[in-house]
């Protein structure tokens, strides 16, 4: 099915040209700002919230005006999600005042919040995977219209109408086949837009988006930005919760910076440099310098020769030396994800050869990869990697449990604990207690536990897929230092990532994939983001059409 | 967003058949059913006679009613194993009430009261599932013992061989009758109509009311459904009450059709019914399935149970065959899903 181009593409192009310039706030250049009413739509005044002994919010105040964009910035655990829940009515503040369209409230309940037009797009999207796109977008509108009562007829015509309008606004197709598609069959980026479409299917006044771009590639982010522009032009305020500073500047608007439950800065983004925002968020100075200082050793460690897995990628060849860090990037559908899982043996390549230390090996199963000393840290660490309710200790030794066991299958706990303790230290976990469940750790620490687990088998090659997705600035720094240390020790590393600064700061070389092939290779020190984007976005014939010729 | 990317949503490069099957798994059920019918009629043409078709229709009613109830609960991500106990409870108590106290109660009222009684016991299930926050499998195992225990301990254990006249008459009332080739009178009973009526009602609720969509929403992801404002309590109570009502009705029909009320009857056949629903394409994890698929699953089990004898396979082999079909169908559903992802 080929979908007709949507007007969204025009808007996308416009935003792209703007983003090419140095950070300029849209808010200050856009004519909409002048029309914004003087009275804020929503204002929080001196909000405090305690959970048991934890003082999560300590006197937070900020205001949100109609038609403006805001970025709520801060490290994990700074109180961002608590403040969202207070706005959406899930939590009541202990102290303080919420002023909604001039009316003061001690707290909001979910119905009040929704009725006032405050919609939240949660990080987990909160979609119903088994229902259709149209139902996910527009069913709730009928539920709210009937006040939550279920003994009512379900109006299909109205569902279709509401869904079409909302989908068109976010730039998704409105064809019947798309309306009736099951949400679990959609790619993640489209699910994100479906969740946003649901938020605006009712008369939204403020849309809160909790880390909406975590799983999106640059092209999809462009589309999201176009959607945000459209919402703002209709007088809808948008509040982003994010880690990605680059995107904030591209969207423009106001920054609200949180640290330790306090609002430490707010104002137009143009008043703050990226460096300054990072300092405000972390409370310390982090240089955005290149982490990579070492150089690869001599001798090939790994080589891929003509790897193919139709329809995802074809004839991919590259080699990697000991102690080398290779970056691979590309759009989400470029085949980079499938290449990563092929190297790890999760979805083995159909054709081509892999050489490790000069020997041709077959990787047909994750166990083969592990035996050959290839570690794979997946992108979705919660879904594919960690046992959240188990302790750090148990997670760290998961790969070596059988080595730690004696002839009767009894695990040598002392040895395991010593190993886990050593790994926790190497990975610079910020807790010494290896009996803590992994679910209690921050995203950055969870990622370090996952990387640390692979260290237990001393891999020769470590494949890191989105190593800092959803990780805060401080943890990123630690993870990068660990990566560099591993390369220093002679391990080969492949980093598959969307985060171009991450690749530029950490890698020796960067491969760019586009439509299933490696289209360019760059020396990380001799290239920049713009050049990489050009290679990623260059239009190429689809793999099928190429193969058909 | 570009056109090439949106293309991913369309199943262009997949096999059309696998795609169809993964969307409508009941097609597999239908194909198996068709294959059995063809094979049996080749081996023993007697199968195609109207009399055996009427037998199959008659045998499907009680199981079909049970299966519709199980299906609607499965669609919401739960499971119910207490429905047979509810059916036995209402069937036996109702028969006693009519026999000993109100002998001239019209049959319509008997049916309505049995249905209401079943719904009431279902509400107990729904409240327990909601408030205990215990998986419905555990709750309904508990209530199955509870309902059955109360029936046998307090209401009675005596096998009633002669039903009240109006119930017996209801069991014999014909929808149509005809003479077969060998001079026997073949009757499709009136109560057969209850099954298509209940199936239509279930289909209507599921696809045409907000409650129906809410049931599938709950089956998709309960915590998301709650966050979106669906009242889980209302849904739980409705679900189990509806399944209970169907079970109550099925109980009376079972008694009328067999011309006796046995308090030890029915309980023990739950797995058979759940197997039928799963064979009909509903996933045990919830959120999917269709009324049509459920009916096909029931039909498949009833046909297997009744035709194996006709082709000379001993009835002890029925279980082996049904078990084989369940594994075959489940394996195939899984295969199609994997192929599709």
Describe this structure in words.
- The complex is a heterodimer of chains A (549) and B (341).
- Chain A folds into four domains: 1-117 and 203-286, P-loop containing nucleotide triphosphate hydrolases (Rossmann fold, 3-Layer(aba) Sandwich); 127-200, no CATH class; 300-373 and 459-548, Rossmann fold; 386-458, no CATH class.
- Chain A is built from 23 helices and 20 strands.
- In chain A, strands 6-7-8-3-9-10 form a six-stranded mixed sheet, sandwiched between helices. Chain A has a six-stranded mixed sheet with strand order 16-17-18-13-19-20, sandwiched between helices. A four-stranded antiparallel sheet of chain A has the order 2-1-4-5, with helices on one face.
- In chain A, α1 (8-20) crosses α10.
- Chain A is an alpha/beta fold.
- The longest helix of chain B has 27 residues, at 232-258.
- With 341 residues, chain B is mostly helical.
- In chain B, α4 (50-75) crosses α10 (210-220).
- Chain B has a single domain (26-37, 48-340), classed as Orthogonal Bundle (ABC transporter involved in vitamin B12 uptake, BtuC).
- Chain B is globular.
- Chain B contains 15 helices and two strands.
- A two-stranded antiparallel sheet of chain B has the order 1-2.
- Chain B has helices spanning 3-6, 16-23, 26-43, 50-75, 83-100, 107-132, 136-155, 165-172, 194-208, 210-220, 222-227, 232-258, 270-279, 291-307, 318-340, and strands at residues 174-179, 185-189.
- Chain B starts with a helix and ends with a helix.
- Residues 1-13 of chain B have low confidence and may be disordered.
- At the A-B interface, α5, α6, α9 and α10 of A face α1, α10, α11 and α12 of B.
- Chain B: InterPro entries: ABC_transp_permease (IPR001851).
- Chain B: Pfam families: BPD_transp_2 (PF02653).
- Chain B: One of its GO terms (molecular function) is transmembrane transporter activity.
- Chain B: It is a multi-pass membrane protein.
- Chain B: Keywords: Cell inner membrane, Cell membrane, Membrane, Transmembrane, Transmembrane helix, Transport.
- Chain A: Residues 42-285, 296-540 form the ABC transporter domain.
